[in-house]
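User: what does the whole thing look like in 3D?
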Amino acid sequence: VTSLLPWPEESLAPRSWSGVGRLLERCRDLHSRGELPGTLMLVGDPGLGREALAVELAASLVCHGGGQVRCRCGSCERLRRGVHPDLEVLDVLPGKTEILIEQVRAVVDNLAQRPYEGHQRLFIVASAHTPPLNSGAASAFLKTLEEPPLHVTVLLLACNPARVLPTIVSRTVQLRLPAPTLAEIASLLASTHGVSEEKAKGLLDAARGDAALVLGSGSGDLAEKLAEARALVGSALAGDSLALLRLGVSVKHDPGRLAWVVDSLVHLAGSSSPKTAERALGAAAALLAADRRRAVLHLDLESTVTGTLAPLLAPA
Ligand SMILES: [Zn+2]
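Assistant: Here's the predicted 3D structure for the full assembly of 316 residues, as structure tokens:
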């Protein structure tokens, strides 16, 4: 059976990471003493443990075999495939750009329902950021987050609590995923991107250890993409407007490259004169801020990149 979870299989691989295992153990321990908070926010980069922790914690809460680590009982296995009746994952529906208020209401209106299989019901919010969890949908959720019924556990996923509405943050207990070891990331990169562990370590080095950046860069030759982004950013920063346009187009075709552009700017700042470094860092900050506005306002990515950077990259 294909997984109904909204994440690719490799995002669950970190279940074997030591830091994820320790957090899971702590949660299970709290649960066994009846002290696990009903609403948790799992904070970390996508694919670097938060999905794995959510799924494994959920499995241990619905388990029929004593909730042991990596239990293979039918209940745990169905949960891992996203087909357990006591699991509901709230995510953006295909063709939509936000979590709909109706989706939240459907969950909230049905909360009193006891677990189908007798233990716990789980709600996982695949992204608690705003967007896609906008204020209307979030408001419909607040009372539940504040005090979920005893048989309900809500897990919200986020990479940056600053992008989650304060009304939600204040109602959750945050669990920050620990950073994986170099060997753990290299092994994940090797399996997801088909590169040797040695090459994976080289890529991580090039990205200054930013595993999320390397993982999020999609398929293709990572080193080549990184070099290309850096060359374009360097030319644009020196006043080459054609390079700037090409940057815009490359990001339009592959939104994951926005992170590479920001990274290239930061990298460049480290090896430039103070004046150029200041412009590069200013451009990186402006780009991040513009991207956040763009997401909220549903603006076009290409023009956001070129429009934001053009005035900043003009030669002094
Ligand atoms: Zn089990």
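In plain terms: The first helix runs from residue 18 to 32. Residues 63-65, 71, 73, 75-76 surround zinc ion (CB under 6 Å).
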